[in-house]
Design goal:
The chain has about 350 residues and is of the alpha+beta class. It has eight helices and 16 strands. It binds adenosine-5'-diphosphate and magnesium ion. The site of magnesium ion (MG) has 5 residues, from helix 2.
């Protein structure tokens, strides 16, 4: 017998889509942090309970959200950032498809407190399954937005059971926030576990990149880093910071931003590993931060559900250029340190 084809109900579609975007607390934090940066925030404070699984809260001092937009805020494909498909190829914001808040509200209970410049008070709105639960209420609050996400995957047992320990989930969040704090070092970031007295990450406003690195990897790390001077190539520009040969990491740390987005870039990771291979003892690895800027038309940001990867037109050339720059800077550092030259 031939099975009948049916249109899936809306709630099933929403749950399937949410599952692609939000796998664990860190996906929610990354989306929410990017929303805050899109809203021009210069301060982002994150608080977690139980590694973000019980509760995660992110507070920013960005533009806030207009009251009139609250009814559709968590519905699917509602966005203030994109209006036509072509805009995708000149996108200047992290967000574009209006899926994050809808996905989060499909798999968790969401509360939003927001206040714009023109509002005299803040408002609190609660959401579930994309819908606003009752009219927003007035409350106290500064300009900006606070989003509280409770009981992640309360309605998706398999997902909830697949999550790691509290420490695991916390470490993933810490790692993503540390990376954003290095790239967007002009903004202030903090991360705190509600179970603990002291914050786990504090990067003050207008920190230098060095200060932001020191906040996460310690001041001693700075003595083992050298800047990658800004380099212009026909395919794009890049700059960054790379470890010298005094740094012997147990595992590689490669932080890559492409046009301001934190992405996994496996080809660049191997190019970087290649550049250090002959310089470091075996099983020792570098620490590298690279920020690439390419023409908006040369990068497709819509290739991965969690935006973890992008597709680049000139990937190979850019990887070669970064590897060459690293090689050059390692030679210089070796020369200065009087350690001889590479073979
Ligand atoms: P996207 O970022 O792709 O537009 P989201 O679901 O992440 O989709 O957000 C939907 C909309 O909600 C955004 O376009 C933005 O207008 C608004 N928004 C979300 N978070 C914030 C925030 N922290 N500050 C101001 N506006 C926000
Ligand atoms: Mg977004």
């Amino acid at each position: 017998m031939i099975a009948t084809i049916r249109q899936l109900p809306e709630d099933v579609i929403a749950k399937i889509a949410a599952g692609e975007v939000i796998h664990r607390p860190v996906n929610a934090i990354k989306e929410l942090m990017e929303n805050s940066l899109d809203a021009g925030a210069t301060r982002i404070d994150v608080r977690l309970m139980n590694g973000g699984m019980k509760q995660l809260e992110i507070q920013d001092n960005g533009t806030g959200i207009n009251c009139e937009d609250l009814p559709i805020l968590c519905q699917r494909f509602t966005t203030s950032k994109l209006s036509k498909f072509e805009d995708l190829f000149d996108i200047q914001t992290f967000g574009f498809r209006g899926e994050a808040l809808s996905s989060i509200s499909t798999v968790a209970r969401v509360e939003v407190v927001t206040r714009t410049e023109s509002m005299e008070y803040a408002v609190r709105a609660k959401y579930q399954d994309g819908e606003l639960l009752g009219p927003p209420e007035r409350c106290a609050g500064n300009r900006g937005t606070t989003i509280i996400v409770r009981d992640l995957f309360y309605n998706l047992d398999i997902r909830r059971h697949a999550l790691g320990s509290t420490t695991d989930e916390f470490n993933r969040i810490l790692s993503v926030m540390q990376r954003y704090a290095v790239h967007y070092c002009s903004a202030a970031f903090s991360l705190r576990r509600l179970e603990k007295g002291v914050p786990d990450l504090v990067v003050p406003l207008q920190a230098t990149r060095q200060q932001a690195i020191a906040a996460s990897w310690g001041a001693k790390m700075l003595t083992k880093l050298t800047p990658l001077s800004p380099t212009v190539t026909p395919q794009g520009t890049f700059e960054g910071v790379a470890s010298t040969l005094e740094y012997h990491g147990a595992r590689p740390t490669v932080i890559t931003f492409v046009n301001g987005r934190l992405v996994e870039f496996p080809a660049l990771k191997s190019a970087i590993a290649g550049a250090y291979r002959h310089h470091l003892p075996s099983r020792k690895h570098p620490w590298v931060f690279v920020a690439l800027t390419v023409p908006a038309g040369d990068v497709d940001v819509n290739v991965h559900p969690t935006k973890e990867r992008v597709s680049l037109v000139s990937e190979a050339e850019l990887c070669d250029a970064v590897a060459t720059a690293l090689d050059r800077s390692l030679q210089v550092v070796r020369g200065v340190a009087g350690v001889g030259t590479s073979q």
